[in-house]
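JOB MANIFEST
job_type = single_chain_structure
chain_count = 1
residues = 262
[input]
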Amino acid sequence: MTYGEFLALFLLPPLLLLGVWSWRTRGKFPPSFHTRPLSTVLGFLVGVAVLYTTPWDNYLVAKGIWSYPKERVWGIRLGWVPLEEYLFFVLQTLLTGLWVVNISRHENRDDSLRLRSSVSMGTRWGVAFGIGSLLSTAWLFWGASTWERATYMSLILGWALPVVLGQWLLGGAVYLRHWKIVCGGVSLPTLYLWVADTLAIRQGIWHITESTALGIHLPGGLPVEEAVFFFLTNLMVVLGVLLVYAFPDGSRFSYLWRRWRK
């Protein structure tokens, strides 16, 4: 199986199904959600994903942390990375974004959990998460400098945790209010991509360098770094969707969104 065939088999069919589901349920959102054009929201998230992921992805490939056999890709490279890889993180963002938007439209939110009562709790959780993220990232970067096998994990956490930290500090109260959407939005796409990634590695579509990986695998053979990567990338997308749709008017993010739209 080639990388292109992998995308056609594992990404495009669920995207088509989610697109049909989204079209059938268009316009339905909880009362606390903003009505925003889906194409604008997804375009915004894809743009951020491409801009933020491209330098990091190129660095990992250039350093040989992962690689792609020539016979598995089209041969079109942008920098160090094959075109299919760019398509992958674009399609993943669309896949998870559409999924979380669709399940948000069917949320039965308990109004007893008021936003005001959850603001202080969200702030405490955000600060606690931030401190833990920074400490764990610093520890892993230190470990990577002295232990080569921690390199891949440290680069994943050092790349993703600052974004998740910023999202939680900005919208912790919103995420606590819509915790069911966060859990449901992250869990199914992550499990699905874990299975797809396991099959891709077994097919030799891409290769994880053993010397820079911890050597810990999930059942089925998926490296733990890949499991963490897909969990964090899906989490970033889900939190990003909720920031756009569920953040209250008058907030700092709402102001920035309006400025970006202009």
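[summary]
Residues 3-17+34-107+114-261 form one domain.
Residues 160 and 233 are 7 Å apart (CA to CA).
exit_status = 0
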